[in-house]
Specification:
CATH topology of the largest domain: Tumour Suppressor Smad4
Structural class: alpha+beta
Strand content: 25-35%
Number of domains: 2
CATH class of the largest domain: Mainly Beta
Largest sheet: 6 strands, antiparallel
Number of strands: 16
Distance between the termini: 33 Å
Number of helices: 8
Shape: globular
Order of helices and strands: EHEHEHEHHEEEHHEEEEHEEEEE
Radius of gyration: 20 Å
Length: 324
């Protein structure tokens, strides 16, 4: 009897999985070299990984949204389930946001991606392996670090929470929901009204980084990431490996955001200076504000006065990249 080559960790409650779960289960039933473990809550992921570690998989596939991936990465990093032989990770696009899957070149039908991964597991994986640096987030002093790859703060986090809490419950398709959210954000930026049906105005933040660097004020967009591609397909590949990439757009006017948008389309965001647009690389970043939200791969944390959120680089992890 052949040992399973691949372990698949699924969150059946992720948006994409609700429609695809029966297909996914049928596919796994037809492929005995797939070990499929389903969880329904985040607190079950630790036990899932302990069980998966016993079969020593060649690849660990996470089938869920960015929040599921964030929880799994935190367990892989802190739990020690795989010792020093952590398997490479692949991510299927099965949530409302799939930035990590997009960065790894995985788009479209999750079953098609799963078929490709099964084929890859039969041969040399090295041409498809990429290392991704990780973000270790701590709130205040102590506690285990939360691990992720993309953090949104300031106005971006407020807008993401607005979409999650006000727009998604309407039951509209993801694309329509995102368009409505963008329109609401533009209205808020142009008119500055105080209305419960629009995203709130960003709260003041202080962001400190290497050698005494400090950004202070209100920011429409605040991103810290280790991904090479992120919002608007922005290419953030730089020479400084193992660094956190910080992008902040001040709330001066809508034109600061437009400048960042145009630069991202031209692939020049990381190398060009614009008034109100800041790009930095650092090994450690601190974010402090008055009860301001940040979102790390779908999970929400709070930055408070006297209790800053501290971000550091974490040990890299190998991932499977499907795109050429």
């Amino acid at each position: 009897m052949n040992r399973p080559r691949i372990a698949l960790l699924s969150n059946p409650k992720s948006t994409g999985n609700i429609a695809q779960l029966s297909r996914m289960r049928s596919f796994c039933a037809d492929h005995p070299d797939l070990f499929h473990y389903e969880v329904e809550r985040a607190d079950q992921i630790g036990e899932a990984l302990r069980t998966i570690a016993r079969i020593h998989p060649r690849i660990l596939i996470i089938n869920g949204g960015d929040g599921t991936v964030q929880t799994a990465l935190t367990e892989i990093y802190n739990g020690g389930h795989f010792g020093d032989e952590r398997p490479p990770v692949a991510v299927l696009p099965s949530g409302k946001t799939n930035l990590i899957a997009l960065d790894l070149g995985v788009q479209g039908d999750p079953i098609v991606a799963l078929e490709r991964l099964l084929e890859l597991a039969k041969s040399d994986l090295s041409p498809h392996l990429v290392e991704r640096e990780l973000i270790a987030l701590r709130c205040g002093v102590g506690g285990i670090p939360q691990i992720g790859m993309f953090l949104g703060g300031a106005g971006l986090a407020d807008t993401m929470l607005y979409c999650r809490n006000k727009i998604y419950p309407l039951g509209l398709p993801n694309g329509v929901s995102h368009v409505l959210t963008a329109i609401a954000l533009l209205l808020q930026m142009l008119l500055r009204p105080k209305a419960s049906f629009l995203p709130p105005r960003p709260r003041p933040l202080e962001v400190s980084y290497r050698r005494g660097g400090l950004l202070s004020g209100r920011f429409t967009l605040l991103v810290v990431t280790t991904l090479e591609k992120m919002l608007l397909a922005t290419d953030l590949h730089t020479e400084g490996r193992g660094r956190l990439k910080l992008l902040a757009v001040e709330e001066r006017s809508i034109f600061s955001l437009l400048r960042a948008f145009v630069a991202s389309l031209q692939g020049k965001l990381a190398g060009t200076k614009f008034q109100g647009v800041h790009f930095q690389e650092a090994d450690e970043i601190s974010i402090e504000g008055e009860d301001s939200s940040v979102i790390l791969d779908g999970e929400t944390f709070r930055a408070e006065l006297g209790r800053p959120i501290v971000l550091r680089t974490a040990r890299p992890l190998s991932f499977i990249r499907l795109a050429a």
